[in-house]
Amino acid sequence: MSDTLTIENLHVAARHGHHDHVLVDGVSLTLRRGRILALVGASGCGKSMTCSGAQGVLPPGVRVTQGRVLHDGRTIAPEQLRGRIVATILQNPRSAFNPIRTMADHARETLRAVGRLEGDWRNRTLEAFAIAGLEDAESVLPLHAFEMSGGMLQRAMIALALLSDAPFLFADEPTTDLDLIVQARILDLLDELARQRNLGVLLITHDMGVVARLADTVAVMENGRIIETATTREIFDNPQRIATRELVEAHMSLYPEVA
Ligand SMILES: Nc1ncnc2c1ncn2[C@@H]1O[C@H](COP(=O)(O)OP(=O)(O)OP(=O)(O)O)[C@@H](O)[C@H]1O
User: What is the ipTM of this complex?
Assistant: First the structure.
């Protein structure tokens, strides 16, 4: 049971008048360190709500109605999970940064939040920025988000995730807002970091190209439920469910050479 993070029977619902509208309907997933699990499915099927629900960071009016998260078999509260056990990188990094704070401020804040601000925070930050591929890391520290490109910001978000030293990473559509060349570089970086740092990654995406490139296993979601889980090879070669087949076929019609 060591080195695992399990989302168990997660239910998430939104209040609509007097009724609950179920958005996530009994999702169970297990992440293992050093492995990348892709969570895929059509837009609106509940991927992001699963990720946010597991971390207890749902939007107003949306709540977890059932389920728990276990780290190495022990139940863990969302506030203990966030930052310490799970780091997060999101789509649209620009909106994830406080516009009036510098990258140095964000790094200090991240380290403070996980109780690691002591000692030489600056050098640790510079090292994380360099590992994340931010060239001339020193010059990045005083920058605000508006002074950086989308690719730089995504690298900065990855650097902050590394600073927290969490063993698991939730990456929710990490390359969606980036141009194709930057996307490819960020995907390479994520792959490299997951392997080198032995991170367990939950990769949320609707892009089967990203799945083919990075994921070891795939969980397919439809209408708030996991309908199929298999290795990436099996998902591409022998999809069992219609929704899975549609995702694979849509991808193959665009990029026949990939799988
Ligand atoms: N703030 C909210 N309040 C109520 N329902 C919401 C809210 N945000 C999203 N939803 C609904 O929750 C469902 C799941 O949304 P979610 O964002 O998890 O989908 P997703 O699979 O991540 O989609 P996408 O690939 O488009 O990001 C959708 O039906 C969506 O309309």
Answer: 0.96
- CA 151 to CA 229: how far, in whole Å? 31
Q: Determine the Cα–Cα distance for residues 202 and 217; give it in Å rounded to an integer.
A: 10
Q: 49 alpha carbon to ligand 1 midpoint, in Å?
A: 6
Residue-by-residue DSSP string for 218-241: EEEEETTEEEEEEEHHHHHHS--S
Give pLDDT, residue 256. Answer: 66
**Contact predicate 95/46, CB 8 Å:** no
Mean pLDDT, all residues of the chain: 91
What is the Å distance from ligand 1's center to 215 Cα?
23
Q: Which of 10, 40, 47 has most ligand 1 atoms within 8 Å of its beta carbon, as the pocket-test mutant?
A: 47
Pocket of ligand 1 (CB under 6 A): 14, 23, 41, 43-49, 59, 61-62, 206
Nearest residue (by CA) to ligand 1, atom 4, is 14
134 C-alpha vs ligand 1 centroid, how far in Å? 32
Q: List helix spans (H) across 165-231.
A: 180-196, 208-214
Q: What is the pLDDT of residues 191-224, one digit of tens each?
A: 998 999 999 999 999 889 899 999 999 999 999 9
Note the pTM of the prediction, 2 decimals. Answer: 0.91
